[in-house]
Each structure stands twice: as structure tokens, then as C-alpha cells.
Amino acid sequence: MKILFLSQRVPYPPNRGDKITTWRLIERMRREHEVAVLAFAHDAADLKAAEDLNAMGIETVPFPHNAKAAKLRSLPLLLGRTPMTLGVYGSRELQRETDRRIAAADVTYAYSSSMGAFFLPHTDARRVMHFAELDSDKWRQYAERTSFPASWVYRREWRTLREFEKRLAHSCEQNVFCTPLEQRIFDEAIPGAPSTVLRNGVDLETFRPAPDEAEPNHLVFTGVMDYYPNIEGCVFFVNEVLPRVRSEFPDARFTIVGAHPTPEVERLAQEPGVTVTGFVDDVRDHMRRASISVAPMHIARGIQNKVLEAMAMGLPVVGTESATQGTDGAAGRDFLLADDAEPFAEAVLGLLRDPGRARELGAQGRRFVEENYDWEVVLRPLDRILTGLPQEEHAAS
User: 94-145, pLDDT tens digit by residue?
Assistant: First the structure.
């Protein structure tokens, strides 16, 4: 089977959430199928990654993308009814290449609604839309947590993008989500369109516990640090949670690990006990030295890879409902749940006071991902999605 894969970013290396998922999808597809990738290249590293993929035998055509310039070009869309997302990720060159290749493909697979726009005109083609999450719902959450005028822009994007998602979803043979929660939101918002769940996974060999390297009272967060939900979560944790923790454990340290920290994130390093690393070659080096992983985001959908990876490494996780709900784990058994500053701090303090309990929670987290999130297991339904065979059961049931 020939598969045309449309990706918002060059899907390699698997060093951030969307790249982890897209790389795993493509790696699984190429075992039995011929895969060609059209993707936006956001920087020089993406262009190099495209060369690496081509060297592996995965034909990859990158299209350079300047995010700042694209956002400026999309501003006039505010005067109409087109989502700004489609302006930011619009490309005549990528559209022409999609148009040229799609007829020769047995199936075209788009990851994110912005990429689905490129195959939408081709009504005769077999198309699979991998939403992962409804992007429109993310903008709704942004609108609820920001003030005017940003809230107006986000609310407009939520409404206009939702209308586009409806049109896109009803045109595809299948719409794919990474959790039953996302599927339920989709089914309620866009009734009548086909949907299924294809979970994310975690590399259980790469992310393994290293208990002998853990440093006492060391907290860690991992994630790309120019992404608003990560920024908001870390600002909340540093300003409202960490001082409560350090009042009892003055040596407690918090390390923020992730590329592209914004000035707001970099300023957090001025606070006592806070380190901002920026890009690192291997996040595991910092995770091994931590004793607790925190996931304090209040805007999140889908499965958070940072949570799965921390659990795979045997780290006890304290997270918000937004950050942990996609795992389908049990709060109190697989991770600790807290949304507000005081209970979040108390959950962290409870683990610092009782290292034995922390180790037990971390070990249970590892068992949980071993049982539920092995990539080889979670991607088994992929061939049925590609071939259009009925799924064995509705994943939300």
C-alpha cells in the first residue's frame, strides 16, 4: 500500500510530543507499506531531520515554515470567517505537492486538522484524519484562561476552527483520537462522523527506571517551553506551589527541561531553587536525577507524553486533572492528582516526607504503562484503520 503522510512538523527525531507520535506511526506503517511524507520544516534541525528520514528510505519533502511570518500573514483572516490556523499553516507549495501525489496514494493520512486542509479538496481519495485532539477545544480552553483581547481572538478561533473540523471530519473515512475522552468530545461536538481511538505509547526500553541516580528533593518538568500550556503550568508551579514546598524543604529544586524557553520561562530561573535548561540532548539525563515529576498544566487534552515517560522511568507523578486525564489511570494509585496550589504542594510534600511511598507510587506507574502503553500493543489497530476495515469495538465504550 502507498501512503501519503501529511505532518505539521518533520516527524523526526522523536524528541517532542507530536514528533514522538508521528514518528511511531510512520515507523509502524513503513514495515509493510511505502510511505512518503510531506511536512513543514520549522527550523534547520527539521531540514536536517528530513535528510535523515530520506537516508532511512522514508521519502520526506520538507516545506520551510517561518512561524512568526506566517502568523503575521494570517492576521487579515480575523476580518473573515477562516480560522487563523489555516493561514498559519497554509502553503501553496505543499498544496501543489499534495495535489500531485494524492491520486497515486492508496490512502492519505493527515496528522492535525491544519494538515487535513490539504487533502480536503480531494473527495475521491481515501483519507484518514488523525486529530489526536480537537484543536478547536484547545482554543476554547485558552479563551477561558486569558483576558481581552487575547480571549476574543482565541474564542473566534475556537468557533471558526470547530466549523472547519466538522466539514473535515464528515469528509473522511476515519477520524482518529488518542484517548476515549477526546473521542467523546468529538462525538458530542461533531455527531455522525466516524471516529476511533489509537492510543499514544511510550518506549519502555528507552525510558527505564534508574533509582540509584535519583537526587533527594529534586522535582522535574519536561516539555517544549514555547508552548503556552507548558509555560502557564510552570509559571503556576514556580510562583504558587514551589514556595510552599521550599518552606518545609529549603533544598528542594525544580528543573524545567525543554527547548525554546520564552523570556517568561527564562525569568523563572531567577527564583530560588529553579533551573531552566533550554534544549538538552537527552531529557532522560535530567529525569534520572529527579525524585518527582510534576505536570502542572491546566490546559491540556489527549495523552501527555511527558506523563507517560515519567511513569515509565519509575518517577512518581503529581499532575493536574488536565494533564493526567488522558492516561485512564487511577489517581492515588498510578499518580497523584491536584489542581490548586495548596493541594498540589501538599501532594508533593507528602512524597518528599515519605520516600518509600514515593518509590512505591513510581513503581506502580511503571507497571501501569507496561500493561497499557507499549507502542507495539497500542498501534496494533493501525492496519485496520489504513485498510478501512471495521474496528473491533468502539473505543469509547
Answer: 999 999 999 999 999 999 999 999 999 999 999 999 997 889 999 999 999 8
Domains of the chain from N-terminus onward: 2-201+375-387 (3.40.50.2000), 211-372 (3.40.50.2000)
CB–CB of 335/318 below 8 Å? yes
Contact 293, 334 (CB under 8 A): no
User: What HEC string does 185-211 produce?
Assistant: HHHHHCCCCCCEECCCCECCCCCCCCH
pLDDT over 60 at 391, yes or no: no
Interatomic CA distance for residues 34 and 107, integer angstroms? 11
Beta strand ranges found along 138-180 (DSSP E) = 174-177
Q: Which strand (E) or helix (H) includes residue 253?
A: strand 253-257
Residue 146 backbone dihedrals phi, psi, to 5 degrees:
-130, 165
Contact predicate 180/396, CB 8 Å: yes
pLDDT in tens, 157-193: 999 999 999 999 999 999 999 989 899 999 999 999 9
Distance CA 162, CA 186 (A): 10
Q: How far lies 91's CA from each of 39, 62, 66, 85, 334, in Å?
A: 11, 12, 11, 12, 43
User: Is the separation of the CB atoms in 349 and 342 below 8 Å?
Assistant: no
Residues 29-47, mean pLDDT to the nearest whole number: 97
Q: What is the largest CA-CA distance in the chain?
A: 64
Using DSSP's 3-state secondary structure scheme, residue 23 falls into helix
Cell output for 299: 490546559
CB neighbour burial string for 164-173, b if at least 16 within 10 angstroms, e if fewer: bbbebbebbe
Q: What amino acid occupies position 86? A: L
Beta-carbon contacts of 186 under 8 Å, excluding residues fewer than 6 positions away, are 131, 134, 169, 175, 177, 193, 195
129 three-class SS: strand
